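Let us begin with a simple case.
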Amino acid sequence: MTQPTPIQIQCKDGYKLSGLFYKTESHTPFEFPILVAPATGISKKFYHAFCTWLATQGYNVLSFDFRGIGESLYGNVKDSTASILDWGQLDLSAAIDHLLTLTQANQVILLGHSAGGQLLGVVPNYIKVAKVVAIAGSSGYQKGLKGRTKLLAPVMFKLIFPIARYTLGYGPTQAIGMGENLPKDVAQQWALFCSKRGYIAHTSGQLYSTAQDFHSNINCPITSIFASDDEIATRITVRDLLSIYPNAKTHMIEIEPEAYGHRAIGHMLMFKTSHQNLWPLIANEIAAE
């Protein structure tokens, strides 16, 4: 099986992102390549098995690390100036264009995990996205969370992150088992976006200009696939995310772990090889008209 090719993606501001390109061996690849955009604090390596499988299905696939994360972090995380807004406006935009250059396609399918599926509304070249399949895609609205995460989120957002910003210089998510440590502005914006309904859209006109807000322009299909035991992507938070795209055809698919022979799926396990019997379900949604 062909190994992925390491690549660099140059953003408009000159920042270089680390990526992996999985070129399918199929002689008749699907029309639209797939851009796999990670969750907050999760590196592209987490998606390797899934991306490899997609390539065997006939898709050209690009995964990458957002700035300040994984191999797109240069130096110490406390010195990173990355923000979630940068991830949408600069990183996703550059990754889309790079994948189109690699494949000579006209549009991509955005397969976004959590944060990777939340940001299309601030991506300037959103018109180049044919479809969004958001895995565990939700707004993360605090009042819509459930279980242990509903208790942890206010402590993390209102206590740990603000204190750590000035003592450590970054968001210490690794210590609480939530991926890599986060650049301080990523942590700050994560807390801000999840504080009210609408995720990033509720800061339009404040954090970024209304001219840079494309939520109402987007009319491509957007589907969120989430698990019933996910404490972050719940019915409330998934509906909240989809509601900020008023002119898109949106769809929710809720998965019961037991129906697929799993004790748990949660927010992260859908990409694990232990749960690869879920991958055809994702592929079916990617291929759906």
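The second case is a distinct protein. As before, the sequence precedes its structure tokens.
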Amino acid sequence: MAEQPSTYQAPALDKGLDILELLADQPGELSQSEIADGVGRSVGQVFRVLATLERRGYIVRDAQSGLYSSSMKLFDLAHRNPPLRGLIAVASAPMRDLAESTRQSCNLSVLDAGRVRVIAQVESPADFGYRVRVGAEFAVEETATGRALTMGETVVRPDPLQAGITDVVVPVSDASGTIAALTVPYVATTFSAIPAEDVVAAATRAGAAISRLLQGEPR
């Protein structure tokens, strides 16, 4: 009887993945010894793995401090996925129009391994605004975006993580159902010339436009 794949072990691969996951969770850079401690290995055990990851471009080492941090290579690899590239390409023009008409930034998110992952973002054309970094991830239950992704509902509510921000979120669908969420982190200040209800209406139109394009209909 053939051995089940789950019993196979690749120690070097495990070490590499442990290091990548550790660095991805860190807000700053780590030394070689800190990485070794973080993954429960000795410095000697991680030395060659770090060198390989650096050579392949998955991590970056600062030339002066010698500290390591994650690169964007994993994110770039994820964006080579054709469905994801197609979604971003289709959403680009409606998102630019939305940002221009509302004078607010907007972003597009998908579910990724049970988390909300931001895959595209358009800056506000105004002098003042709020942006979310492409690649950022959030717990589904903490965000209005997570509710839109899981329930397929338009959501308007104060952001629980950022005071002064109202999340305006609309679902984006293809023929199979909701696949993404379009979010406007609405900033209600003296810089905001467009009232919230108009932003909701504009976001709803943009989400519908993206959905129509995904389903092969004219915008």
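Helices lie at 11-24, 32-38, 43-55, 73-78, 82-102, 144-151, 196-214. The chain has two domains: 9-71, 77-214.
Keep these points in mind for the review questions at the end of the chapter.
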